[in-house]
């Protein structure tokens, strides 16, 4: 894993990520780390570059420029080494034991979501990327999903959650990364962002942060990476 300036290892290290589709710039000069035990909330309006960022970190699409290192491996040069092989426990945890022999296409949307998460957890990954993880889940499934993400972080995984659900991000995430039109508007600890808006009288400090930085107000101070 890559070491940061303060000696803390970075499981995910994105350095000056730039990704363009012909003349359209989807992500422009994006840099951020995710360390063991951290849960990064990736936020932004539609078209902000969240999906492109997630796909690039996962190694699905290559960056036009920049470098992405996951668990010490460059995802462009060593895509297989960046990701490596506990099924009964996962089936029980996500209440899928009775569906173990059912084809995925025969499952409900929520169950397919659970299967996808189980597949992601199967290899005990050090880096976990989830896009709208609560889609299709019932209240019990939501509780299980949240608990599993907290558990993985507590065991040292670095997690990135992309979601439009601000309540989910506010509940789970230790850090925030807000994008708009492909550019990074804010990166830092969630507690720091909440503290800045604690006296605004809003029910959701995160909501205040989100709309401030995506609707043309001056950017929030950026901490050192």
- Computed CA radius of gyration, to the nearest angstrom: 18 Å
Side-by-side strand order of the widest sheet: 8-9-5-10-11
What is the fourth-level CATH superfamily of the domain at 2-83 and 158-214?
A: P-loop containing nucleotide triphosphate hydrolases
Uncertain ranges? none
Q: Strand tally, please?
A: 11
- Sheet-strand content, in percent, reads 25-35%
**Could you state the order of secondary-structure elements as H and E?**
EEEEEHEEHHEHEHEEHH
Q: Give the number of helices.
A: 7
Mean pLDDT: 83
Assembly type of the chains comes to: single chain
Q: What is the approximate shape?
A: globular
- Which structural category do the helix and sheet elements fall into? alpha/beta
CATH classification class of the domain at 2-83 and 158-214:
Alpha Beta
The helix fraction, in percent, is 25-40%
Largest sheet, described in full? 5 strands, mixed
Terminal residue distance:
16 Å
CATH-defined fold name of the domain at 2-83 and 158-214 = Rossmann fold
CATH architecture of the domain at 2-83 and 158-214: 3-Layer(aba) Sandwich
């Amino acid at each position: 894993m890559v070491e940061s300036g303060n000696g803390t290892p970075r499981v995910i290290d994105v350095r000056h990520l730039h990704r363009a589709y012909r003349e359209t710039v989807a992500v422009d000069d994006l840099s951020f780390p995710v360390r063991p035990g951290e849960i990064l909330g990736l936020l932004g309006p539609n078209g902000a570059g969240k999906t492109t960022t997630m796909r690039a970190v996962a190694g699905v699409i290559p960056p036009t420029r920049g470098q992405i290192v996951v668990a010490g491996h460059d995802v462009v040069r060593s895509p297989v080494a960046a990701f490596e092989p506990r099924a009964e426990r996962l089936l029980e945890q996500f209440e899928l034991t009775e569906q173990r022999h059912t084809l995925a296409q025969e499952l409900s949307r929520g169950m397919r979501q659970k299967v996808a998460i189980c597949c992601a957890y199967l290899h005990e990954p050090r880096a976990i990327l989830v896009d709208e993880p609560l889609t299709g889940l019932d209240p019990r499934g939501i509780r299980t999903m949240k608990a599993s993400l907290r558990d993985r972080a507590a065991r040292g995984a670095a997690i990135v959650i992309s979601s439009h659900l601000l309540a989910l991000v506010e509940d789970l995430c230790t850090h925030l990364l807000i994008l708009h039109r492909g550019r990074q508007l804010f990166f830092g600890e969630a507690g720091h962002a909440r503290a800045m808006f604690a006296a605004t009288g809003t029910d959701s400090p995160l909501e205040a942060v989100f709309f401030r930085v995506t609707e043309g107000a001056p950017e929030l101070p950026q901490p050192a990476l």
